[in-house]
Recover the amino acids of this structure.
């Protein structure tokens, strides 16, 4: 628990400035009132938020129906997410937002597009009609495998308009990974693009879709956005161009009145065993959660230009590039490409040119910028910024301080937000006008949610000791299950303690009740803020003809937080070496995606195992990190393996 000790030494605290406090959407008084209500009666708190922040076609009969582990929120109510993100900003007292920018989009080559709320509404209605025209019905799943272009947001909103749950697959995943997700969700259509711009080159997507659909029969239609003018194969009867379909589509499409518990989307995320899990989110609770948190935590105002750098293929992009932001009628900036193209100052240039006021990014990005040098942000005017945020992994206090000083000019509060694909929205976070921050801490629970640090036995752990992060009660944005796998849903999240959610993270609280997240405690690695299961990489490796066995662990990395280390035993007769290692890296990229490529591959003739044959990952983690193995090795079957892995013998 050395990490906990070092974080405990962190004593700096930062108060929000008077100016910020004065204008905050939620000030100290509001927050105190909500905390009180949320603690006493979370359902009442969330019902209040649902009334204030979401528009409903008809009211609920019951706020919550909780039969652990299954929750239904706003039972019987009807709403529509695209209505909340679009239509309601065009009507009544909000009608002035018609010509306000909903999306400011910048392509990597520098092309710009702005979609006003009225324009975005029109495009969404048209694409909803396109989907209907292709036979997509309420409840049908639509897979989206797209670059960061406005058409992705349009397609998502169009799906929500007709009640067809989307399943977005990050464009960095391989054809194989895409196929698994398409098949698991039983998608009837795929929306993609020829390619997207990444580091000055088109990154092909349609090609991967073609490959993924070989032998797959659930998909009837593929819609292709022409982003890069690539020559792609269009399969007659199945593939159609976006622009051709849109040319004839009607711009009138009333939003479907959907049940609050109607499935909104599936998003796959890595787990400790087997294939990725399809995390299921539904309509009313999710919308309430993301709309309320976005308003309170990002302090969204009509004048803001809000920029979250996450790809929409991850949950952060779902909740806080698109849904939570548009539901508040705010302006969201979307950027297509790499942070360092054409130069290391691209982000700061974007902030200066568009006058970004709120900036939300990942610690990995911050650490990368620190390494690139202060001259890049310093060569731009960043004075438009008024609030900063981080998400995805623990932020080390030094990176926090750099962000605070160099990007925030010491004036911007930083919201370090803890949450997960499964939680749907932010759970632990500063409220920027009301909570003092400490570098490295996500600070306090959002009102109405109840995180706790528990022991394995389910006892609350007294500060400052470390334990497991748990969520004690249901919350509106919580996952409603794993697509098609009830058993796994119970096992993964609800079997550690009775009726309590197990987050898979280690954490501790300090004397003030501030939470400090220590990272994953299971076999999920957090590489650059992206979750990758050790098992997934292992099964990719052993699917290679020259690999007999492999074990994958994470080791700490200064930039990416965690780096992937693979221990590989080649099959007899195979020569280990750089050639094989390169080959294996390419193989993993093909099977999963480039994001899962091991940083190190170490060849070994044996892996450390217990007598019952279980690989002792703890030992491998120590070896990968270059640490002396501490703790119990008495169950190790063959002691000499350890020495050989470390290279002690010679
Ligand atoms: C980690 C991303 C520390 C954590 C929204 C969690 C964090 C996993 C933070 C979820 C944070 C996320 N501080 N760790 N502020 N935010 N994490 O599903 O390990 O991609 O369990 O959701 O990221 O990753 P996911």
């Amino acid at each position: 628990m050395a990490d906990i000790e070092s974080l405990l030494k962190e004593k700096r605290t930062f108060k929000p400035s008077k100016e910020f406090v004065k204008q905050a959407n939620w000030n100290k008084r509001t927050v105190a009132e909500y905390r009180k209500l949320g603690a006493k009666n979370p359902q009442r708190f969330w019902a209040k938020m649902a009334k204030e922040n979401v528009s409903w076609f008809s009211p609920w009969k019951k706020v919550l129906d909780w039969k652990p582990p299954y929750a239904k929120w706003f039972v019987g109510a009807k709403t529509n997410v695209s209505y909340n993100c679009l239509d309601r900003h065009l009507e009544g007292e909000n009608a002035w937002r018609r010509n306000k920018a909903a999306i400011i989009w910048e392509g990597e080559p520098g092309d710009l597009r702005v979609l006003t709320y009225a324009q975005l509404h029109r495009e969404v209605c048209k694409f909803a009609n396109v989907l209907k025209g292709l036979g997509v019905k309420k409840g049908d799943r639509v897979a989206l495998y797209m670059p960061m272009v406005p058409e992705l947001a349009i397609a998502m909103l169009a799906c929500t308009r007709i009640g067809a749950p989307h399943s977005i697959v990050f464009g960095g995943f391989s054809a194989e990974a895409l196929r698994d997700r398409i098949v698991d969700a039983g998608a009837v259509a795929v929306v993609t693009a020829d390619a997207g711009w990444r580091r000055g080159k088109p990154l092909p997507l349609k090609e991967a879709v073609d490959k993924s659909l070989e032998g797959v029969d659930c998909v009837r239609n593929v819609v292709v956005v022409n982003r890069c003018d690539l020559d792609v194969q269009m399969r007659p009867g199945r593939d159609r161009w976006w622009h051709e379909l849109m040319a004839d589509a009607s711009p009138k499409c009333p939003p479907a009145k959907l049940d609050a518990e109607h499935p909104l989307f599936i998003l796959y995320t890595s787990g400790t065993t087997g294939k990725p899990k399809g995390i299921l989110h539904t309509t009313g609770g999710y919308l309430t959660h993301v709309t309320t948190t976005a308003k309170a935590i990002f302090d969204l105002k009509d004048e803001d230009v809000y920029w979250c750098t996450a790809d929409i293929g991850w949950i952060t992009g779902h909740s806080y590039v698109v849904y939570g932001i548009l539901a508040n009628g705010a302006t969201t900036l979307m950027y297509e490409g790499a942070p360092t193209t054409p130069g290391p100052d691209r982000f700061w240039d974007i902030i200066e040119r568009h006058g970004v006021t709120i900036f939300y990014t990942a610690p990995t990005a911050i650490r990368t910028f620190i390494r690139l040098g202060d001259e890049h942000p310093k060569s731009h005017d960043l004075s438009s910024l008024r609030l900063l945020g981080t998400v995805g992994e623990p932020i080390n206090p030094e990176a926090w301080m750099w962000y605070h000083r160099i990007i925030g000019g010491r004036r911007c509060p930083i919201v370090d937000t803890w949450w997960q694909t499964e939680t749907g929205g932010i759970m632990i976070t500063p409220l920027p006008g009301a909570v003092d921050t400490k570098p490295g801490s996500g600070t306090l629970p959002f009102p109405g949610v109840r995180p706790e640090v528990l022991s394995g036995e389910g006892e609350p752990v007294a500060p400052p000791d470390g334990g497991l992060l748990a969520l004690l009660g249901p919350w509106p944005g919580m996952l409603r299950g794993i697509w098609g796998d009830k058993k796994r849903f119970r096992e993964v999240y609800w079997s550690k303690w009775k009726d309590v959610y197990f987050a898979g993270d280690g954490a501790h609280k300090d004397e003030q009740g501030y939470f400090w997240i220590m990272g994953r405690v299971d076999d999920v690695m957090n590489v650059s803020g992206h979750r990758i299961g050790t098992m997934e990489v292992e099964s990719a490796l052993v699917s290679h003809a020259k690999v007999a066995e492999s074990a994958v662990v994470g080791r700490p990395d200064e930039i990416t937080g965690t780096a992937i280390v693979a221990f590989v035993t080649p099959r007899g007769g195979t020569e280990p070496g750089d050639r094989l290692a390169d080959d294996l890296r390419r193989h993993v990229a093909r099977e999963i995606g480039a994001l899962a490529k091991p940083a190190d591959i170490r060849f070994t003739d044996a892996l450390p195992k217990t007598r019952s044959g279980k690989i002792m990952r703890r030992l491998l983690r120590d070896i990968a990190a270059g640490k002396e193995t501490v703790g119990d090795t008495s169950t190790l079957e063959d002691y000499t393996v350890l020495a050989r892995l470390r290279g002690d013998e010679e």
Remarks:
- The domain at 524-649 is CATH 3.30.300.30 (GMP Synthetase; Chain A, domain 3).
